[in-house]
Each structure stands twice: as structure tokens, then as C-alpha cells.
Amino acid sequence: MADGLRRLVGAESGRVLQEKLESWYRDYEINSCDQNLNRCCEIIELNSEIQGQLFTILNETSREGGHYAGVETIKTRLLPWLGTCFSCATSGRLFETNLSLTQDSIEKERQLRELASNQTFQLQELQEELTSTRLQLSHVQQDLAKTQLALEDTKTKSATTLLAAEDEIVQLKAALKTSCAQEKDALRKLDRLNDYEQQIQILQDEISILDAQKSVLQSRFVRSRSPSPRHSESKSSSPLPLRSCSPGRARRTNASRRACLVARFGDIYAQERLDAETLLRTYISDMEMVQRIIYIAAVESFHAAKTAYRQFKIRVRDTLSLGHSGPESLEDTVLDYIVRHEDLYDVQASVNEVIRSMNINPKISFPPEIDFIVISTLIRELCRVAFSMQTLVPPLDVAFGTDGELFSETKYHRSFDSDFTAALVAYHVWPALMENDVVIVKGEAVTKRGALLSRSRSPSPLRSGSPRR
After folding, report:
1. Sign of the dihedral through C-alpha 21, 25, 27, 29
2. Please, are residues 37 and 7 in contact by the beta-carbon 8 Å criterion?
3. The whole model's pTM is what?
4. 443 with 350: CB under 8 angstroms?
5. CA torsion angle for 235, 241, 246, 250 (degrees, to 10)?
């Protein structure tokens, strides 16, 4: 049976029969009567061949099933079909009509059963939805009653809170005035201290300059007495290592260096700041104190770097002025030299200065057995970036901020744990970067209502000695 069926499929007689029917249908109107009859006869012959092969397969299949296998199928399907084939055309049409009516009746009964089952299912769903809606309505009514009670309670509390808020505003204003007075006093003392330090450093620089001038005069004196030009050239010396640099190079690269430094400042906020915050959390559980320490470290790093830059610039200017004769100005020559020799900047000295300032800052505290040197990596990177920012034209600096100042949307972002209805800054997380009083990169601050009154700070324990290297 399988071989006969495979041969029938391989011969593709059904496809050929379909193609002949389609071809006859397309050409029926243009063919003659004889041509149409010939086409019909060809199709009948091909159909009879297919039927003969199918009957052969039917015979082989029935033999494979045994004596009684397939008898019911032959009785119910094959014999009625054979009977209709040999009956008259009228009886054939009647049978077909009866068969069509029977099939329609069965199909309608099936559709009615499906419709009844669907309606029953939909009715059950509607009942379930009605029950669920009733439950939800009951819950909503209960929630409404609770909300009304809560609203009445909130109204009572709001009246009390309003009175307390007015008292708090009065206290905040008084505290702000006191803080401003203390801040001004501290700034005056700090300015005097800075003046003393600058005078000491100026004297030290003048001593260094005099030593350099003495060395230059001695080298000129030796060169004037030496008969050999090569010998005199080998004897000459300079107090600073002079490397070749193009005139005005610092101003030409100002835009690119500014972009790189601003990007580096953002990277320090995103990476080194978080690393220092994680490190400090192992020693200090108070997150506010950790953020205050990092902010003060950033501000002090910029202050130390600016001071070191001014001192370095004075030494370079005084040294280069002894032999300056180029077409460019002395200021441009000094700036080019600093840009090309930033590796001469003693960043460790600035780190030590920052740690010393943090140790005496009354706003932050730290366990006595631990030193601020644990965040020296963050301080070192900030000092380097701040020093390089001073070589820009105009230079970049961080904004000055005080606790309790009015929050500025143009200078700071609020931290995620801030009270967004508060108008005063409780403390700063990161300083804003400025260029001629214009904000280049926003900082971050925390705003809270009553934070200045509810929290008191203990002064930082003073540590003796200089920071460890």
C-alpha cells in the first residue's frame, strides 16, 4: 500500500489534474466545441486513472487489515457513494440536497450548543465581576471613611504645625543672623591668618629669588672670565629647569584643557567621591558627617591648590624675568612654563595643608584613632585638578557656600533625601564649579526644614603633628 501511495504522490497526478482544469477554464471561451469536449475527456480519463490507483490502494489497505477490518467504513462511506454514482441524475441531486440539509442541520445544532455554552460562561463571568465589584465598593467605602477621619486629623495637626512653623521661621532668622556674624568674624580671622602666611611665604620666596640671582651673577662672572665659549656655556646654570615650549601655547590650548578639566571634575564627583564616601562609612556611621567631610575636603583642596599656584607663579615670574627677552609678554611666558611644568607642583604639600585645615575645622569630626589621610587619594586628585584649573584664562574655582544659605537652583541640585519644600541649605555635598561667577557644573546640597536647629555639631578633635605621608 505504501508503495502504491508513494507512486501516486510521485506522479503528481492531482497537480496535473488541477493545472488542466485551470488551463481549460482560462481557454474555455476561446476554444471551439470540439476542443472543449476533448479537454473534458482528457480530464475524465486522468480522473479515472487517479480513481483506479486509489481503488487499488483501497484494496491493498483492506487486505492488510484482515477479514473484518474496515468493513464499517466501507459500508458507511464507500457503498453509499457507489450507489449514488450509478443512480439517476435526479436521485443524485436529491441525495446531495438531503446530504446538504443534514450537514446544515448538524452545523446549526453545533453552533447553538456553542452559543449556549458561551452565554453560560459569560453569565458566570458577569456574576463573578458583579461580586468582585461589590467587594471593591465595600472596600472603597471603608477607605473613604478612613480618609475622612484622617483628613480631619490632618486639619487639626496642620493648624498646630502652622503655628510651630512660624516660630521656627523666627528662630531660623535669628540663627541666620548669628551665623552670618560668626561667619564674618571667622572670615576676618582667616584673612588675617592668610595674610600672615602669605607674608611668610613672600619672604621665603624673596630669599629663594636672591639665592637664584646670586647663582646667576656668579655664573655670569665665571662666564666672563672664561676664555672658552664652550666652557662658559657648560658653566651657566638656571634656577629652574627650562624646557622648550612654544610661545603662547597655554592660550592656544586653553579651550581643550578647559574641557578636559571640567570633564575630570565630573569624573571625580562620580567615582573618587563615591569611593571616599564608601571608605569613610567604615569609620563613621553618620552619612551627613561623611558628606560634610568630603565637601570640606573639596573646598580646602581648591584653596590649597590656589595658594600653591600663586606661590609657584611668583617664583617662576621672578626667575624668568632675569633673562626674559622674547617677543611674547612675560606673563604669557610664565603661563606657558607652568602649563608645561605642572609636574613640578608639590601636590603632597597641598594634601598635607588640606588635612591640617580639616583637623581644625569645627564643622566636622572624626574618630581620634583615625586620620583624614584615609581620603588622601581624593584630596590629591582634587588638588591636581584645581592647580591645573588656575592655568586657564579665566581660571575656574568652586563656589563659596555656607550652611543655612538660601538654596539656589542655578548652583545646586537637591540630593535625593532632601526636603523639597525647604528653602534653606542644611549642608553641602559637593561644590559648584564657577567661571567668573557663572556656574559651569552644578553642585549638590541637602535642604531640610529645621535641620540647623535640630542638629548640633561637636568640634573636631585637634591632632598634633603634621599629616603622615
Report:
1. positive
2. no
3. 0.47
4. no
5. -160
